[in-house]
Each structure stands twice: as C-alpha cells, then as structure tokens.
Amino acid sequence: MERYVSSTFQRDDKNEEMKRNHEQMPRTGIETDAIHVGQEPERWPGHAVIPPISMATTFKQLEPGKPLLYEYSRCGNPTRQCLEECLASLEKAKYALTFSSGLGATTTLMFMLKSGDHIVSIDDVYGGTGRLFRRCMAQMGVESSFVDMSMDPSSIVNHLKPTTRLVWIETPTNPLLKLADIELISTLVHKYDPKIMVLVDNTFATSYYQRPLELGADLVLHSLTKYMNGHSDVVMGSLMMNSEELYKQLGFLQYAIGAVPSPFDCYLVNRGLKTLAVRMRQHMTSALLIAKYLEQHKYIERVIYPGLECHPQYELYKKQMSGFSGMISVYLKGDDVEKSKRFLKHLKLFTTAESLGGYESLIELPAIMTHASVPEEHRRQLGITDGLIRMSIGLEDVQDLLDDIEVSLQYAFLNTIEK
Ligand code: P1T
Q1: Atom 3 of ligand 1 has which residue's CA nearest to it?
Q2: Can you tell me the distance from the alpha carbon of 262 to that of 74, in angstroms, rounded to the nearest whole number?
Q3: Predicted model pTM
Q4: Which domains does the chain have, with CATH numbers?
C-alpha cells in the first residue's frame, strides 16, 4: 500500500508536468491529439518517434523502496502511461485508466460498491454488462434496476434511492441504438445526490463523436476492443474521469485488483487511435448510405440508426453527438429466426461474429449471440427479437457491401417462399 502511494504520487507529478506542457500548446483538434499527446519523442531515450514497447515487468529502484518513475508493471509502465494520456486527451478528460477488457474496467469499478448498494442501469445494455449486474453483483448483495432512459429521462428520479451509488448509461445502446439524454440525466441525478456516480458507456459513439464528461457525467467507459482500437486484435477497456478523487480510488483498484492490459496491447491500441478520426468518418459515411438503402427495402421492417431522421431521438442525437459510428440494427420482415440465419449465412463480405468496430464488416443476431444472456421476457419487452440483426459496417467499398446485402436478402426471402 505504501509503495503504491509513492508511485501514485509520482504518476500525478508526471501528469502535472505533462498537463503544464500541454497547456502551453495551442488548443488542438482530436486528430492532432490522437497523434501527439503522450507521444512526445523526448520522453524516450534516443527520441524514438514511435513510442517504444516497454515489456519489463519490473523497474530498478534507486534504493530500496524508492522507485524512479515505475516500480512494477501492474502499477504502471511507460507504454500504458503513454496510451492513458492519449486516451484522456481524446475524451477531454483529465485522467484515463486502462484495463484488460471493457468488462475488466466495469468489474474494477464494481469494487467501489458494497453490499446493500443499488445501481440504476439503462434497460438496453450490452449483454455482458447486464449479466455482471444481474448474476455477479446480485450475488454480492448489490441490487440493480433496469430502466428505459430514452423516452422519459426525467423519470430517472423515480428510480433513485438513498442506496443508489451508480447510474449506468449506455448511449447509444447495444443493440437497439436508443439514446439517453446525458446532460439532463446527470443534472437530475446529481441534484438528487451529488455523490451518485453517473457513468456513460461511450463504446458505440467513441470519443470522436460524443464526450459525456463535457455533458456532466462523472465517468466514461470504453470497450477499447471496438472502434477505439479499430482492428479487432486487442481486448481492452478504459475508464476516464475529471475528478482527482475518483482517479485515485480507481487507480488504486486498478493496481489492487490487477485487471490490467499488456504493454504490447497498449502499443496496438495507441497505434489504432492514430486513425480513429478518419476511420469514424468513413464508418459513418458508409453506414448512413446502407441505412438509407435498407430503409427503402421491401424485406426490411425497420432500420435503426441514430443519424436517420426517422430515429425517434434524432433531435437528441443532433444535440449531444456530432455523428455516429458504423452500427446499424434492422428488423427483417417476418421475425423468423431461420430467415435471419439464412441471410447471415449467405453473406460473403460480412462475417457472422460477435464484437464490432473493426475495419471489417461484422453481423450478428443479438437474440442468440451477444444478448442471449438477457432473460427471455426482458428481451421480448425490449424488442430483441429473432428478426433483429445488428451490423457493424466496416471500411470495405460500400458498393460491395450493398451488393452483398442485396443478394443475400433476396436469397433469404426466396428460400422462405419456396418452402
Ligand atoms: O468485450 P469487452 O472489451 O469486455 O467489452 C464489453 C463491452 C462493454 N460495453 C459495450 C457497449 C460493449 O458492446 C461491450 C462488448 N460488446 C460485444 C462484445 C458485442 O459484440 O456487443
């Protein structure tokens, strides 16, 4: 514990110095920050332009109990620090911490709670997050309420209790792409009790299109596994915050629990961030085109994409986001699982797989894949039916993707008629 305090102090010291350097620079755009913040060549011996990967698990101490900057790699290492600084700058946060997965970040945060505490979560939440709340946290005596925060956000106050410690917002949600008003919910929750933490899972929008801390949230979570890394080759998560107190508490838990990423993975995510802006712009351009195409399609019941005017919360989208990613959800006509499966199996360029946000297009059936752990009745209430398909539009030629979709839809529906 004492050793950790000393390393925290040094980390803060270094952050202060970095912050001072940063303040002297003119205000920069997210594209510039992604490339430069935390990457100053002067930090490394030999002034390497690309941050080196530091694989050391431990660091020589000046004398026993006196580490220089780092002591043991679980507490921090140069590659992880470089990534955490870069991530913080993109989210316009003071601090960022990284973890071995998105759920690793969530689990670490759960250690801020104790038996008897209460979580209010948006109802349409990533299946794994819901499973952690319902199955694991319930076992530890932490109760969760699942609430629709999209249509009537002010009703959030009806779900808060003296024991509520955390309000968990995922916006846009996975897989139904519902939006929650971050500013309004944060204001109402903090008015009820300023100590309740408001967290936004920003995985689907990324720091490029939405910055919840600027809207009043206390914490932002990312599954970096998705768009932020963007190459489907790393599983990692992060938490970002402005409060020094939260940073110190969560920094301690990061170290004490140990769900930390490897330096090699930190290097990869740091590299992925360099193209975040260009990737996100292209994901959005292609997704919007495909969403509009599907909107008119005779075999499609409904298309959900926040950037479409027909999205029920299009006004909120324009207010709190500057764009959206490549995530589209659609209902096939007929709500027939066999038809959905035939469509997915026929696709050549879209790969049927869980996950999202990489340069390659992925597709899945939430009801039997990512959200199979959601209790069936809750799934039905939400609208996660057999006809619901989630697409992650990648960076392939968009006409190729449209052709693949068209041919496969024809195939899925023709076969049904024949049968
Ligand atoms: O997979 P991991 O890095 O642990 O991240 C968990 C997570 C958290 N939040 C959101 C919004 C997510 O979508 C995820 C992971 N989601 C999938 C694997 C998926 O296919 O939806």
Answers
A1: 102
A2: 9
A3: 0.94
A4: 12-273 (3.40.640.10), 276-414 (3.90.1150.10)
